[in-house]
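Phosphate ABC transporter ATP-binding protein
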Amino acid sequence: MKTYNLEENSIAKVSDEIEISSENLQVYYGNSHAIFDANLQFAKNQVTSLIGASGSGKSTYLRCLNRMNDKLARVDGKIMYKDTDINAKKVNVYEVRKQIGMVFQMPNPFAKSIKENILFGLQSNGIHDKNVLEERLESSLKEAALWDEVKDELSKSALALSGGQQQRLCIARSIAMRPEILLLDEPASALDPISTLKIEETVKALKKKYTIIIVTHSMAQATRISDYTAFFHLGHVVEYDKTTKLFNDPSMPATSDYLSGDFG
Ligand SMILES: Nc1ncnc2c1ncn2[C@@H]1O[C@H](COP(=O)(O)OP(=O)(O)OP(=O)(O)O)[C@@H](O)[C@H]1O
């Protein structure tokens, strides 16, 4: 593998309103340093892609944004969200995750009905008003572009849905909690091309209401759906910019080598 000076980077300041940012973020798995001093700002109601080779730290970084690494790793530095450092130990992680939802690579619906998948989190949080639940059920499934396909069989097991439908159900389950940010960790990598396109269309529509940060291995997908892109290499954020700039006119040699496939 080529070597690069990872002390150098090119991190653009975001001109849009900032929704969430990391400051001097470091992640350690035991003695292994996995993320080095990551400083990134994410624009509100925009889609940001995290790209880079396998093992570059994209998922590790993403998981920090809603404290999913708490039990796996030591995370130093700040995650600033609404003037609060949500990486601070006193912060209630369950409250954080209501506002910052996450969808994983493999669809993981509960072994319950479609309806119960959507309502479970709401009911667990003390929401029992029938009208509110019905409204959330319908609006979440509509936002995730699944309503038309399932509206007549809401009692059917979620596990009977196709992989792509299950993943849109997981997105619907997340947005039922009315988060402000959605973290998506390779949400389409286990899906066929048609399902992938549906997820991409859904993501593009969702940014009107949510700030979206997505890990993807597909550079084509990053260019199709994201406004901003961060390129990770060996735990460092090498370059961060508007997607069009990063892909068409990268500033760092590592970025241009990665994009052109001349990375090995
Ligand atoms: N739970 C864990 N325990 C120990 N090390 C881990 C753990 N998760 C990730 N790592 C290590 O941290 C580094 C970054 O991994 P991470 O999964 O964040 O990379 P990635 O860019 O998301 O990779 P991929 O594209 O393959 O998912 C790797 O060296 C990986 O082996």
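thats it. The first strand starts at residue 10 and ends at 11. The radius of gyration is 19 Å. bye
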